Amino acid sequence: MGLKPGDQPSLHLTSPGRLQKIDQLRERNIGAYLPLPQLVAVGDQSSGKSSLLESLTGIPFPRGQELCTRYATQITHRREAYRQIDIRIIAGPHAVQDHKTKLESYLKQLETTAQLGKEFPSILTEINALMGIRTIDNPAGENTFSEDVLKIEKCGPDEDYLTIIDVPGIFRTTTEGVTTNRDKELVKNMVKRYIKDNRTIILAVLPSNVDVATQEILTLAEEADAAGDRTLGILTKADLLKELSAKSAVVSLLEGKRKPLKLGYHVVTNRGGDDHGEEEDASAALRERETMFLEDPWDRLPDDRVGIASLRERLGDLLGEITDRAFPKLRTETRDRLANAEKKLKDLGTPRQTEREQQQYLVGIASQFQAIVRAALDADYSAHPAFSRDELRLITAVINTTEQFNVNFQNFARTYHFESKTGIATEEEEDEEDTKDDDDGILHLDMPGIPDPGDFPDLDRIIVTDWAVQSPKTGIMKWIDTVYHRSRGLDLGTFGHGILSTAFREQSAKWEMMTKQYLSLVILVVHRFVLAALEVVCVDTQVLQDLSSTVLGDLGAKYETCMNQAILLVHIERQLKPYTLNHYFNVNQQKSHGVRIKQTLQSKARREYPGDEKRPLVVKLGDVEDAITNKSNAEHAKETIHDILEAYYKVAYKRFVDNVFSQAVDYKLLSGPESPLRLFSEQWVLGLDAEKLRAVAGESRRTRERRERLKKEIEELEVAMQILR
């Protein structure tokens, strides 16, 4: 093979403008958010990486010093009409603003590489001090290594666009007073971070005079690039190999016979110790050394696998390829990332540093909460997408629960079944004997859609969790007989009012428990709604937790008020003397009396014209008199007690169920001014003192930091969108 001194690098198809835009994105730390196409050189400290980069870039890195190994270095070549070398510092992604401002103000401009070679040591000393690197010249430095990046940009009319990032070399042994085991891991993690992205071409620098199987950097590259799709092995120090067997082993590696990589390997010589003169002299010396590749066994290798010139061309091609593949996707990814960051910032709400900001923030949440409450009470489930969740369909759940309570109360709230049907009973009353219960006479109320009380332990002292109800018993007349004989006095042809009061209290003994069960179910539904609605309107998890904790304390008192109102209604119905102005009481009583007489006369009735079924039944007047009068005082009194009790019970239970819903549920729990649903409102927020307001709505340090990070990300991504246009 032959290398001609005047060889020119090929013209890459990639637009230099695209490559420059990628560098601009990197300078603004967009790589912290999105993977950017890049070439990253990694290797051991003794791998010959600095010599390789000097040969590739012409940048005369100082020898015998470790000044440039404490941070990543970005070397960029850019074709311009003028010749100039610019040296800047790119602040790391986590740099504070003061540090970033200090670094961004640094700029050193030189005209030639020869001038750079003379001034480079002092320049690096300045840079180390600015980055806070601890060195002999800067013992006060706080860091051994830095996330900041040194950027060297070389411009000229004969420069081809190329950017290479050099990462500090990994090391196995520490130097006392200079590096520690912690530094060793820090550098290794830095290398891993730089090579992990799938748009990074890994330039694994490996010394030819060391067995590649022992090279840790190749292991790290394999971890990041298991398929070997984006790793290029660069073998340095080929000129140090003297034995033919050693040279043949390297050639075998380049031919893909050992440890193959899809991008393959490239071999170069080491830069000479005297190659620090003018660029032309250094290039001539390099070409002289590379004549060794004309000898056996190197001459078996293709031209594009040996030497610096072909490597530079290969790297330009690789950078162009990955840039062309990534560029269209970068626009979409940047746009998506920007939209996501803006949404996250919006979800945080307005800043909440001052008392006024905290108040405005909570008032906004309270306003949204009340809007959901109004829609939930009106069953306006199209008002918000959150109503797709069943737990937010509040009024529907309450009505379903109330209707079931009405049926259960109608069928099971009485202690004894009444003996007669009056003819005005509702359809449900006529069917009540068909209701199924357990063999032991216990009904277990089935309430689908009701939350598990175990999910809300804070309600334990307010609600009941036993849903069992005793089924009504038979034998009401025997029971009335007992009540009558235990309570009668000197009543002539009638009975004392106290007997009816006693009978009604015993007949309604289950009212309080069934009412508590009903209220407990509704409270569970309301409580679940409140917590779910708070989750919808409050996206900040910490504020949600603090707000829920504060509101829940006051909610408990509201629920207790509701339960107490229901119990008061129970006591009013059961403890006061039975009384009603409802005309259905008299209608029911009279019809009960009529049914009883009819049943007594049924056996006495006959047809006026036997055989004519269309004729009405008739009875003798004497039989009517006997049916009314042929009873003992006690028997007449007990029947009267039964009929009055049944007539009054029907009026009372309907009145009671309506009152429980309208007063305890609708007014106290749902719609009234003291409803727990009205608790978290604008007025509640305005009533909080400064300390409570800060405890609920004040931004935590974590939220403040997150807000600042998102603002910074949005600002940088907006700039990225401008660059990518």
TrEMBL record:
GO terms (BP aspect): endocytosis; intracellular distribution of mitochondria; mitochondrial fission; peroxisome fission
Coiled-coil intervals: 693-720
Segments forming domain Dynamin-type G: 33-328
Domain GED, chain residue ranges per copy: 638-725
Keyword vocabulary terms for this entry: Coiled coil, GTP-binding, Nucleotide-binding
A GO CC annotation given for this chain: membrane
GO molecular function, one term: GTP binding
Origin superkingdom: Eukaryota
UniProt region (Disordered), positions on chain: 422-451
Any matching Pfam family: Dynamin_N
SMART domains, sorted: DYNc
Protein's UniProt keywords contain Ion transport: no
Biased amino acid composition, Acidic residues: 426-440
InterPro entries with a match to the protein in the record: Dynamin (IPR022812), Dynamin_GTPase (IPR001401), Dynamin_N (IPR045063), Dynamin_stalk (IPR000375), G_DYNAMIN_dom (IPR030381), GED_dom (IPR020850), P-loop_NTPase (IPR027417)
Full protein name: Interferon-induced GTP-binding protein mx2
Organism: Sodiomyces alkalinus (strain CBS 110278 / VKM F-3762 / F11)
